[in-house]
């Protein structure tokens, strides 16, 4: 609901000019005046309502073209002026970050609020000063990468803010849901361990054909059959299930998945001699993202490409957890209502739906279901042909690169010109989408292309209203969705491209019984006798069949949601690990915490060191050495947990309980880590004593670092549901206590093993 009284007060204050105070209404009134003065725009009531909701930390749903960009300015200025807080406005891509910053900067300047923008091309040396601005525009990924980069810096103060405050997430459904589980990774070239044998393994694995492996249809993971294991043993000359063969087995399965499961132009493209992944939700190219584990190298081997080295992973964080680092979080999207429960349950933020300024004039037709792909394609082409004859613009949201190109080829045979927008030319995205509303334009895109870019009827730069009037007369923009997707929200986003700001428009959604979501999730079983037994031409009209098709989609949506929640619960322990480790490392470098390992665990050596070196310089060096050791420790942690995640399901094949094995392995790892820290620090002190001066000591640190995204959404847990047993509340609370930040061991209720683990971090970091 819109609070009319509050909005009327803001407008009255703006009109009178009596708005010099620092209440939210007074600040909003000053922003209102600044917007009119600098941009020549009068904010709508709906924009003020959305801005108020953002300022209160809510998830705002606003339809396309309603002016979300301006709403964020009000909330950011209020945060800066009222509480002196820094606001990060996190966007979907660099284009939107730079566009919104440049567009809104005059308003911030008028308000006296400092603003800056960071893109992937922003020099690292400039970022420290940029992050000191009161408002910073950046992509969520680039901000997350900067958070990780701070963990590998050895400057006294990281350039990324140590304490985050407020984030406003644009296109929040994509960033906080669709891409929430994708880890951002920073890797370095210190102690990189490369096997270099993937090419040879791939060639040998080509002999493993039909009957040698099985594919899990849900997770798309590959497993050797008994026949395949025997054949692999003969090919590779060793038992692939023997102790010590885990790495080989993982690489064999990766090669089989690359060959028989992943498809070029659907899962990835090969561009400029490199494998570029395709985002499964948007259909866009995802440069900088890689497949997890050995799969990236296996795909490269499949195409005879150079096997890339990405360095050793030194840190990672999923966007979901990066967003949760902000004490105050808000967001904007056109489809928040469909994900209300997830926003509340995962991020703790309520959703507010903002009505459109003008009544929605778009006609959204119900799902049209066809017997097979041929019948569906016939209907889609007929709809495009009819619109083309009327010079009505059409935007087609296809399922993949191959489908977009196939539709374009069919249209070419029909003499209909079109523009293709997919992962192969997405650098032209903004321009293509901006022209998608021109008379007679036919644009074939993938899924949700053009986020943040308005499709203006008649064209983005039309000089008169003639073209718009003609397009309106033809019915406005027609949007066609060519398949049923895993989430109805994706189709809703596509539908939302039409009907901007009260314009007329139309959307239709097509599906067939052969759509993957319906085939893979057994629509036949849901529909029973209502499922067609023979081919039917034209649209299927059985209401029960249609209802069950939509039910399948809801089941898939719910399963995906529950899976994300379960995975979040499972990984909370690792997130706590990272938070503690990152914070303590920063405190070592900025002087707020001093390590005392040498004083307590090697006192005699330390006394010798004091005889030769100044105490303050020795303490600084000890802090920096421990900081480097924490980098090393974290690398080991990530290596080990990656190994566990990739291989733990294999213990079930060997007749052991994966959950039990995982628990045991984690306990052993932390016990060994606890025992090794003092000894490793003592070794470093011996190395220091071998130096003539402290300046001669060289700290192990990466000479280069790399950032990329790991296309890893927890598939390994899909294939072993038994691990979900680890996610009980008891296990979670025990693990949280194990890594309590202050290392306090005074917990009479904690079991002995919990106190030991708390003792590890207590010994490593000490008390605050």
Which helices and strands occur, and which strands form pairs?
Elements (H helix, E strand, L loop, with lengths): L3 H13 L7 H16 L5 H11 L3 E3 L6 H16 L3 E5 L2 H18 L3 E3 L6 H7 L4 E5 H10 L16 E5 L1 H7 L4 E6 L9 H8 L7 E3 L6 E3 L1 H11 L9 H15 L7 E4 L2 E4 L11 E2 L4 H8 L9 E7 H5 L4 E6 L6 H8 L3 E3 L7 E4 L3 E3 L2 H17 L4 E5 L2 H13 L5 E3 L7 H6 L7 E5 L19 H8 L3 E5 L6 H8 L8 E9 L3 H5 L2 H5 L15 H48 L6 H5 L1 H10 L2 H33 L2 H4 L4 H32 L15 E6 L4 H4 L10 H10 L13 H14 L3
Helix pairs in contact: 1-2, 2-4, 2-5, 3-4, 4-5, 9-11, 11-12, 22-25, 24-27, 25-27, 27-30, 29-30
Can you tell me the overall shape? globular
Number of helical regions: 30
Strand content: 5-15%
The major pleated sheet works out as: 7 strands, parallel
Arrangement of strands in the largest sheet? 3-4-2-5-13-1-14
Report the C-alpha radius of gyration, rounded. Answer: 29 Å
Low-confidence stretches: 714-768
Q: Percent of residues in helical segments?
A: 40-55%
The total of beta strands comes to 22
Mean model confidence by pLDDT: 83
N- and C-termini, Cα separation:
45 Å
Return the structural class. Answer: alpha/beta
């Amino acid at each position: 609901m819109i609070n009319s009284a509050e909005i009327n007060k803001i407008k009255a204050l703006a009109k009178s000019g009596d708005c010099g105070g620092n209440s939210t209404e007074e600040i909003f009134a000053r922003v209102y005046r600044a917007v009119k003065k600098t941009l020549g725009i009068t904010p709508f009531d709906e924009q003020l309502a959305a801005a108020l909701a953002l300022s209160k930390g809510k998830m705002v749903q606003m339809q396309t073209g309603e002016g979300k960009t301006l709403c964020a300015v009000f909330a950011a200025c209020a945060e800066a002026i009222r509480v002196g807080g820094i606001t990060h406005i996190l966007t979907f891509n660099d284009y939107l970050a730079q566009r919104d910053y440049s567009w809104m900067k005059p308003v911030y300047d008028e308000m006296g609020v400092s603003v800056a923008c960071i893109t992937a091309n922003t020099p690292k040396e400039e970022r420290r000063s940029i992050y000191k601005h009161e408002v910073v525009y950046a992509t969520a990924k680039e901000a997350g990468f900067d958070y990780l980069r701070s963990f590998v810096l050895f400057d006294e103060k990281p350039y990324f803010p140590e304490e985050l405050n407020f984030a406003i997430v644009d296109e929040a459904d994509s960033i906080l849901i669709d891409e929430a589980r994708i880890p951002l990774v920073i890797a370095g070239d210190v102690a990189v361990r490369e096997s270099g044998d993937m090419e040879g393994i791939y060639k040998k694995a080509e002999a493993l054909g039909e009957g040698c492996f099985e594919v899990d249809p849900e997770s798309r993971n590959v497993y050797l059959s008994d026949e395949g294991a025997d054949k692999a043993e003969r090919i590779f000359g060793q038992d692939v299930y023997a102790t010590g063969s885990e790495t080989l087995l993982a690489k064999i399965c990766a090669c089989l998945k690359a060959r028989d499961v992943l498809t070029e132009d659907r899962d990835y493209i090969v561009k400029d001699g490199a494998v570029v992944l395709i985002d499964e939700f948007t259909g866009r190219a995802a440069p900088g993202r890689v497949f997890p584990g050995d799969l990236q190298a296996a795909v490269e081997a499949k195409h005879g490409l150079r096997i890339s080295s990405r360095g050793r992973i030194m840190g990672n964080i999923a966007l979901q957890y990066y967003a949760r680092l902000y004490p105050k979080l808000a967001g904007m999207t056109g489809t928040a209502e469909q994900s209300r429960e997830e926003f509340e349950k995962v991020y703790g933020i309520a959703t507010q739906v903002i009505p459109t300024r003008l009544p929605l004039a778009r006609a959204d037709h119900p799902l049209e279901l066809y017997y097979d792909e041929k019948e569906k394609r016939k209907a889609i082409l007929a709809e495009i042909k009819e619109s083309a004859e009327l010079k009505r613009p059409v935007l087609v949201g296809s399922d993949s690169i191959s489908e977009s190109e196939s539709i374009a080829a069919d249209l070419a045979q029909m003499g209909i010109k079109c523009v293709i927008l997919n992962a192969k030319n997405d650098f032209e995205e903004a321009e293509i989408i901006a022209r998608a509303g021109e008379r007679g334009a036919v644009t074939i895109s993938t899924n949700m292309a053009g986020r943040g870019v308005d499709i203006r009827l008649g064209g983005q730069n039309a000089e008169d209203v003639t073209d718009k009037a003609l397009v309106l007369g033809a019915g406005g923009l027609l949007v066609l969705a060519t398949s049923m997707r895993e989430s109805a929200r994706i189709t809703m986003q596509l539908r939302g491209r039409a009907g901007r700001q009260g314009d007329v428009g139309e959307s239709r959604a097509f599906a067939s019984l052969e759509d993957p979501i319906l085939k893979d999730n057994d629509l036949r079983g849901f529909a029973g006798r209502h499922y067609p037994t023979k081919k039917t031409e034209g649209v299927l009209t059985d209401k029960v069949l249609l209802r069950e098709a939509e039910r399948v989609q809801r089941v898939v949506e719910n399963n995906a949601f529950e899976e994300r929640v379960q995975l979040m619960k499972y990984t909370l322990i690792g997130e706590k690990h990272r938070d503690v480790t990152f914070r303590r490392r920063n405190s070592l470098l900025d002087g707020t915490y001093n390590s005392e390992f040498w004083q307590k665990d090697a006192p005699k050596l330390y006394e010798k060191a004091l005889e030769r070196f100044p105490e303050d310089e020795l303490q600084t060096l000890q802090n920096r050495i421990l900081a480097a050791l924490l980098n090393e420790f974290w690398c080991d942690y990530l290596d080990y947990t990656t190994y566990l995640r990739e291989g733990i399901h294999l213990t079930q094949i060997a007749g052991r309980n994966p959950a039990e094995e995982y628990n045991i392995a984690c306990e052993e790892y932390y016990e060994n880590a606890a025992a090794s820290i003092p000894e490793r620090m003592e070794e470093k002190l011996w190395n220091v004593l071998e130096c003539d001066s402290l300046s001669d000591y060289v700290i192990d640190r990466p000479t280069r670092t790399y950032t990329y995204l790991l296309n890893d959404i927890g598939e390994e847990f899909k294939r072993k549901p038994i691990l979900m047993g680890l996610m009980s509340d008891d296990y979670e609370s025990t693990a949280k206590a194990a890594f309590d930040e202050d290392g306090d061991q005074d917990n009479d209720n904690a079991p002995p093993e919990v106190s030991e683990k708390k003792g590890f971090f207590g010994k490593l970091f000490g008390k605050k």
